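User: Assemble these into one structure.

Assistant: Restating your components, then the assembled model:
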Amino acid sequence: MTEPLSFEKSRPNVHAPRLPDAGVAAAEVGDVLPPELLRSQAPALPRLSEPEVMRHYSRLASMNYSISEQFYPLGSCTMKYNPVANEAAASLPGFTTLHPYQDEETVQGALELMWRLEQALCAVVGVDRVTLQPAAGAHGEWTALRMIQAFHRSRGEARTEVLVPDSAHGTNPASAALSGFQVVEVASGPDGRISLADLEAKLSSRVAALMLTNPNTLGLFEREILDIAELVHNTGAKLYYDGANLNALMGVCRPGDMGFDAVHMNLHKTFTTPHGGGGPGAGPVGVKADLVPFLPTPTVERTNGHLKLDFKRPQSIGRVRSFYGNFGMLVRAYTYIVAMGGDGLTQASMDAVLSANYLRKRVEGLLDLPHEGPCMHEFVASARNLAPNGIKALDVAKGLLERDFYAPTIYFPLVVPEAIMVEPTETESKPTLDAFADAIAEIVIEAKEDPEKLHHEPHSLPVGRLDEVATARRINAYLQGQSEDPILRWKPVRD
Amino acid sequence: MPYLVHSPEERAEMLAAIGVESMDGLLVDIPAALRIPRLDLPNGLSEFETMAQITALAARNRVFPDRLTFRGGGVYRRFIPAAVAAVTSKPEFYTAYTPYQPEASQGTLQAIYEFQTLIAELTALDVANASLYDGATAVAEAAMMAYVHTGRKEVLVAGYVHPEYVDVLRAFGEGRGIRVRKGSEPNAKTAAVIFQQPDFLGLLVDAPDLTKRAHDVGAIAIACVDPISLALLAPPGQYGADIAVGEGQQLGLSPSYGGPHVGFIACHKDLVRRLPGRLIGASHDAQGRRGFVLTLTAREQHIRREKATSNICTNHSLCALAASVYMTYMGAEGMRQVADVSFKRAHALAAKLAALPGWELAFPERQFLSEFPIRVPKPAVVNRKLARKGILGGLDMQRWFRELKGVFTFTCTEVNDARAIDELVEAVSS
Amino acid sequence: MAGRLYTKSHEWITVEGKSVTVGITDFAQSQLGDVVFLELPTTGRKLDAGESFGVVESVKAASDLYSPVAGRVTTVNEQLAAKPELINSDPYGEGWILKLELTGDLPKDFMDEATYKKSTESQS
């Protein structure tokens, strides 16, 4: 099944929606504004009736896999069940209608929620304060690095380098570069953990921070984290925690205790706010006391039960987005935390680790497991054992789609060839994990017996494998003036 | 415990299958000194108790009715068709991930491809991306594009651009040593001229002239635009701006205390390779069926790492979907009506307020669309008076601009009916 | 082919008097996959040995291009704009990338074909 574009379904004489008349005496736009300020040609938006609009989007919805219908074992993405109570909470009119510039006394409930969420996040990760402003994980990384930069600058130190492990998410080096730092890569050792020798070699008084994910992107806990923290702090640098994998640790241990100075959290991973097909998320950042003066403005402050926004923070890095963060996401995350409580969050992390290790055990012997277990909340396998059959990680992923599972993260981290990164989360049942392992087993048999068949999967989805190379080449032809078709948009035929 | 799925028996079976006796056997890599006895939070609650707590917090906020809200400043009350929530609350959309596997994500991919087209049409530029966080970060990302493209380290902010957008621009620029200057005279060091149309006060600026000034010195012209206004006003592509950015909240998203909303960015084809974030392109499979894929990904952080055009990964896809549903539902004609009604009501309100003793338009010689600055007598009491009547009054500009003492902006949209306008005027004159 | 020299960063060169032709190796193109775009310098640009002069992109990867010698760009392979796939189909022939006019001497640290082949065997 495919669905035409809304533009292609558009018919010129369909009624526009019924809207109110102005109902006031006022001049026409064209009589007031000079023609050079006015639009000369109407935009070619589609023209559809409401029934057609609804059917169009319902058909599009049916072409998606989603956590509501499929197991979504995307490593590092923590695709867990998104509680429907969160959605009910976020759609309360007492939240949705609030104007960001309403007076403080009329938004005490909103500020109280933000303050309580901050306290809860402080407790989970072991820091002193949290800013709720960043809109996503990468935005949080950058916010944290800017605070670290401001901290060093306040001491008259111009530290210009940020260390990033070779297994890190691409957002880490990109955020460092956006903050004006030079990125220096630190190698992983043969056991998949950061190489202490290489770290020592790269630390210097030029280094502002080490960015680390723990458990790392291979799903392994950095056992030597306390030594790492000491090494980093001894040179005056700060230790930054990428919270992508926090789901392994709630109630087990805290990044703050490990020596991390700044910690970002993905509310759309660990704290069940939905991912929305690519956001909106929320990426709060927690910091230890010596980074608190540099928090973005405003912060939420509470005195004698009265809440206010504090804009007077002289050492602040300033604003990182408009208003106060993705408030609707904050409501969802807080609702989840209240429902789960300390006991529930702890069990959630335990179950996440248990599920990952169980699934890891189930795929042992089917795919390569390049690193020794146990793992934490996710594990990285490799399809390199299928290379003699001409089968790649991509083929395994497509085989899973054919079998009604979303695919794991593939080709990441870069340090594992043919990587298949699996994160089951705590909200997938044992029968689901077993069915997934069975599907992997079936794919491995097919890889060996009929690899050609696997190369052509999936065939029961709306489309088969798409020609991404042709797409990119056509776009580049357009950008270089060799073609009229932008490929990146539908193009109207104008009279 | 809510949302957890393993039974105690299953947990035991799984531990046995792994070959460990207890969870501690799986947590061996964590140094004992780091383990905490318990998470210092209250125990969980039933859904009923949870919702009671959350509802109590919501009840501590004051809800002003749509029709009596006259405050804007970047976030507006507008009519949101029921179709928008009906689509965005479909779990197939809101519980999906970024569409990494195109075969299983055609719904999201096609919807965002349509979003890119809608924004490109609205701004009259060649290409738009899949969305950014908000209007403020969209301005900052556009400035980063200009910095990389021109190799110049100064950006010029012309006129009354949203002060929070300028603050975010400063924070973005500071790390890389990019200087933000206010003024309208670019020079050979200027990477970009940034202006807002209509500006933060609601006034129309001479966008073609500012664009020309930028181009005369080889700088990029960045227009920060109100998407509803583009149903009436000349779009950035019409006057030759290179990049258009803006906040898409008015396209079907509720105020929600400032977020989540959606930033958009569109540009001329020469700058497409510098665009931040996701881009979706049309493709086809071996059978010739059309499909959509994430494309030009070599610009992005997961491939290009420190050389990426931006660090953005998760963007605001679901909000972009809401905006798409809104624009598709409204069509060009519906959006034009929305903008037109807002224009007329704002002008009617402005005329009535300006006729009151002590009230006068702050810039009577300037044109506006649906938001306008007006000098009010006794600024300290105006909004308090209005609030007593259930009205959310104007926005005090002195909060950001010392020179605008006593100046408030008021906004009107299609939700502020004629009677609401009269109620406002009555309330301030009583 | 005799006379083709290789670098550790997977470029090749051939030398005719002062003129040096630069491309990327068969191994490099196979690692990148289908090339979709090249960002190349304009003619006349002066490059140091080891200086990055452009980028080659596939749909899954992007790789910087480094000048193996110091020189001035005299010719850029214009065909690649429309046909980046030449990098894949004929990396040593029609897929050449640019020609430089050598300034100074040819560096000594190039590999010959056999040595280069050996160095890539451990990487594939």
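The interface with chain C takes residues 295, 297-298, 303-304, 307 of chain B (CB under 8 Å).
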